[in-house]
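Q: Can someone sanity-check these two? First one:
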Amino acid sequence: MHIRPATRADLRAITPIYAHHVLTGLASFEVEPPSAQEMGTRFDAITDAGYPYLVAEDGGAIVGYAYANYYRTRPAYRHSVEDSIYIAPDALGRGLGKALLVRLIDECTTRGYRQMLAVIGDSGNAGSIGVHRACGFEQVGTLRSIGFKFGRWVDSVLMQRALGSGDATLPSGAGG
C-alpha cells in the first residue's frame, strides 16, 4: 500500500467510495451522495485552502482517502482541523484507516496546526473510534441524537488530539 497526495484524477475512485458510505453507513450524515462535480468542488476548496488530501493505493487502485479541513471557519479556530477518512468497502479491516490517519496527522503537524478533531458519526462506530484512539485521540464528548438517518437517531462522537506542541506554546505570529 502506498499513501500519496490526492489529485483531481483520483476523484473517479474517491466519489464512489464516499457514495457507498453515504448510502450504507452513518460515518457521513449526508443522505444523498454528492455528484462527481460537487466532489470536485469540495476537493478544490480543501486543497486550494492548503489542507492535505491523501489517497491510499494498493496495486494501482485507490482503496481509501483522507483529508483535513476547517474545523470551523471563524478565525479563532484557524489552528484546528477536522479529519475525514473513508475506506473502500472491500478494503476495510486492513489497517488503511490508521495508516491514512497517521500520515494526515503528520501532514497537519508539518503545516503548523495545533489540534485535530474527529466528529465520528454513530457512537457505535467502534472501528473509527478505535482507530482514532490508537492514534492518540481522546473522546471529549458525545452529541446525543444529533442526526437522523436510516430511520433512527444517531449520535456524533467528538474526539481530539494535540498536534505538535498543542496548546503548550503560542502559535507563530500569535495575536487575536
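And here is the second, same format, sequence then C-alpha cells:
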Amino acid sequence: MDEIVLALGGGGLKGIAHLGVVFRLMEAGYRIKAIAGTSAGSVVGAVIASGAKKEEIINVLSTLNTQNFFSRRDHDGPSLLGLSGLVKLLSPFLEGKKFSDLKIPLAVTAVDILSKQEYILNRGSVIEAVVASSSIPGVFPPVRIGKTELVDGGILDPVPVSVVRWMKPKLPIVAVCLSPEPEKWPEMPEVSVPLDTHIPKLILNRIIHMRISQAIRIFVDSMDITSRMITELRLELEKPDVIIRPDVMKFGYLDPTNPQELLKIGADAMEKALPELEHSLTWRHKFGRQFQNPQPPSRVLEE
C-alpha cells in the first residue's frame, strides 16, 4: 500500500469536496500518513485524522443545516456570523480530543492578528484549532488561544504544502486546491455572506442595495482575488507532487450546498489525477525526496 500526505486548502462549504478526494484515494489503496489543513481543509483533515469511517461522515453530513450553521456562541467576539454549527458538526468525531488522540498526524494553520504571524497548530484541543483556522476575519470571530487572537490560516497559506512537507518530507504530497486556475477566474460567482433569512425581504433588498453594502461587496471580492493569487504563487513556489482542483467553481463559500454533489466532484477530480499520482511514486521522484529536511515553515503554537 503506497503512502502519501495531504495538503487541504480553504473554500468554505465547498470543502466537502475534499472528502470525495480522500475517499477515492483510500479506495485506490493509498494510505494517508499526515494531513495539513487550512480553513475548510482543517475541518476535513481533522475528521479524517480522527479515524472516522466513511459511512459515519456521510451520516453526519446528511444532517447539515446551513440555516442555523452560522449562529454565534455565547463567548464569541465581534463578527457578522458565528461557527457554532461547525462545532456541532465536529463534535461526534472530535469532542474532547487533542491532537495527540488522532489516528493520523494533523497540523492546521491560523494567523495571529496581534503579532501578524502564521502559526502551526498541532497540539491541544482539535476543535478549537479548527475553528481558529476557519475564522474568516470580520465574518467569524477570532479565537483566543494563549496570548494569540487567531483567524483563518488562508490569509497567508491557502494550501499548506510546506507544512505537510515539514511533517513527512519523504512522502509525495497531494495538494487539494478549491479555486480554479487563473484563466477561469472571470467565470467565478461573486463572494456572498449569508444574511438572516428572518429579515423581511423588502428590508433585506434595501440593505443589499445600500451604498455601504456595495462597498463591502467590492472589498470582499478584491480580497478573494488576492487570496487566489497567493494560492497560485505558493503552489508554484512549493511544488506539491500532485495538485487536485475539484470543479467547485459554481458554489459559493458559505452558500447552501448539496453534499452528495460535492463528494462526487471531489472523487471525479481525484480519479482523473490517479495516473499523475502513480507517476510521483516512481523511484526517480522518491530518490529526490530523500534529501529533503525542511524546517517548520512558521511558528508552532505552544499548548
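A (reply): Looked at the second one. The mean pLDDT is 87. The CA atoms of residues 130 and 240 lie 23 Å apart.
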